[in-house]
Automatic annotation (TrEMBL):
Organism of provenance: Amphiprion ocellaris (Clown anemonefish)
Family: Belongs to the adaptor complexes large subunit family.
Pfam families reported in the protein's UniProt record: Adaptin_N, Alpha_adaptinC2
One GO-annotated biological process of the protein: intracellular protein transport
InterPro entries: Adaptor_Complx_Large_Subunit, AP1_complex_gsu, ARM-like, ARM-type_fold, Clathrin/coatomer_adapt-like_N, Clathrin_a/b/g-adaptin_app_Ig, Clathrin_app_Ig-like_sf, GAE_dom
Superkingdom of origin organism: Eukaryota
Signal sequence segment: none
UniProt keyword annotations, A-Z: Cytoplasmic vesicle, Golgi apparatus, Membrane, Protein transport, Transport
Residue ranges constituting the GAE domain according to the UniProt record: 679-792
Cell compartment(s), UniProt: Cytoplasmic vesicle membrane; Endomembrane system; Golgi apparatus
Protein topology in the membrane: Peripheral membrane protein
Name of this protein: AP-1 complex subunit gamma
Segments forming a coiled coil: none
Amino acid sequence: MSPSVPLQEMIRAIRSARTQCEERGVIQRECAAIRAQFRQADNGGRSHNLAKLLYVHMLGYPAHFGQMECVRMIASPRYSEKRVGYLGAMMLLDEKQDASLLITNSIKNDLSHSNQYVQSLALCTLACMGSAEMCRDLAPEIDRLLRASNSYIKKKAALCAVHIVRKVHDLGELFAPAARSLLAEKNHGVLHGAVVLITELCERNPETLERFRKTVPDLVQIMKGLVISGYSPEHDVAGISDPFLQVRILRLLRILGRNNEAASDAMNDLLAQVATNTDSTKTVGNAVLYETVLTVLDIKSESGLRVLAVNILGRFLLNNDRNIRYIAMTSLQRIVGTDHNAVQRHRGTIVDCLKDQDASVKRRALELSLALVSATNIRSMMKELLLFLSSCPLELRAQAASGIFNAAERYAPSQRWHIDTILHVLTTAGGDVRDETVPNLIQLITNTSELHCYTVHKLYRALLSDISQQSLVQVACWCIGEYGDLLLRGECQETEPVQVTEDDVLDALETVLQSHMSAPATRGFALTATMKLSTRITDNVDRIRSIVSIYGSCIDVELQQRAVEYNALFKKYDHMRAAVLERMPVIEKNSPGHTNGESTREAVKEVQPAKVKQAETLLPQQPASQVCDLLDLLGGSEEPLQPNPAVGSTLPVLPVSTSSTAGGDLLDLLGGLEPTPLTPAPTVTVYEKGGVTLTLSSEKQSDSGLTVTLTACNSTDSDISSFTLQAAVPKSVQLHMKAPSGDSLPARGAAKVTQMVALSNPNKVNLKMRIRISYTSQGSAFQDTVQVDSFPEH
């Protein structure tokens, strides 16, 4: 192949290569020829050779030796060579290459060129690969071009300014005045570039954002012109006038209207007009509607407009395009917490999406369906979710089971319904549930004494029909061991009783013990149940003794240990067997003011908000010398936080120390302090930060009882949600926190949240309290702690 072949001939030769080796040979010969011609001083075909080299680069072969040729061609006065040179610079150079610095002066000269196309080449190259140093050097030139009279240049300059702002944030102030003036342009390309530039400026600088909020009326007018304009062949796309510009304007309005009522009010009418007048039958219209919905949901819009936005998302759910259905459910998932009732109207459509063939749509539909469960629709929604669980993909089964458990625990209309629902899940997906499911269900069954007979009969039937679901088998074995006497009695008012003999029950447990499907933990449940039945039946104690003795030599160490201990009960401590194997007492969850464990050990109580379902794990008691010791109830740090020094009773103020550490550490807060006498005061402010104020008042109920009232108020301009209070007290003080009056604080003190805390101090130790404050404001989570060293009393 001759070195002077045209680009088309080289492409044809490369494509006709039958093997990769042959292709490499063609490219190596051509690259050698290109190198030789680059070395010639007077080369008339430089642009031709560089174009071929760029094609080689596109195929993935090394072409770095053409970088300096790009620099030389950019400096050429001929437009044809400049064009290829700039193209080569954008492909072969980046800001990390030293050669890129060599073209800075050429770009600066070309930005002042009389030919708009040469200026355009320089602008595109700077926007593509300009380094931070180049951007600083050339920013004044870009600002000058933003004020040029040529619309073509202003459009390119605006997009180049976006790149400069991203590279050097400090230069944003330079372009702000020119960007504001570009909004008066009629050319859509210039408007598009201006909106993108203003969006970038507002996202990076809060002061610039505040300044550009004054442009909301201008943007509204531009958007209205696009919505109500007639057919324009230059900008029309599927019946929508310039949808690209509309989407960009809506995104900018979303940024300008966020957390600002005045700006939001100025755009409410426009958003309603776009939402009602845009054609939703085409993908282009759906894109504009989707951006409109996101804007409505992100600004401080009217309630009616938010309902309209949710209804648009509801229409998206009926679309045949799965991508549109997916983004609709993703958006609804984000707002279901704030606009729950509006989303509830589309519950039927969302549930229908559970039957979709697409796995991503199913997952989103499951998450949204679980979020829509409430006390009013728990029965109907649970029916649909259980139906979905029976046929859902394996990768969604664990998520579905976990969501059903949580919903049943929160909204169960009755204890029997709760138990039936969990048993249904265990029967359907027992192998995919979480580890804590078994103890949680056992606790639920234990606490519902009136349903013991019903539950043991139902679990016995389930055990006979299927022993492959390990979680179900474990619960069934536990219940049979505890309530086997109710099963053998054959009397059950809630369900049809089953006539069961002692041999039938033992046969079922032996089947579990001998089954290859039974896990070691399941065999442990079955062996313990068998042992417990020895005190609940009379005729088959010898059979139980033989079953237990068999597992005394089991290969599983845990099972062997249990069997050896049970054999010892039979042989050496038979007189104690009935007492050791008696029915378990009611199991109580750890709750404020209540703890499980040995009565001789005083555990520290942790106050929980109403939403928390289970208490944190309590730490063991420290030595008795630390009377006022308060362990790490709410954080994970091992380093103690030091409280304020003890204050005498003559001071009228309430000693308070605050900590803003992320973990909210409470480890050893009060250990080693001398008792501090209480300072009487009616109401005292114990926390005031970030617009949130927490006041404390207390009233003595008895010699050892005290009722504390915590009142929170929000003085900021933004609403606060998920507001919770948690508290910790010394070990010897009993604490019970009642349900709060709410979990949200409206802006500007429109309402308050009150929390009542009852303290019992039988040992008359000095009262101390550590309070954790958690809330969400403007999408960000905040957490802080405050220490109260004395309490005012009425």
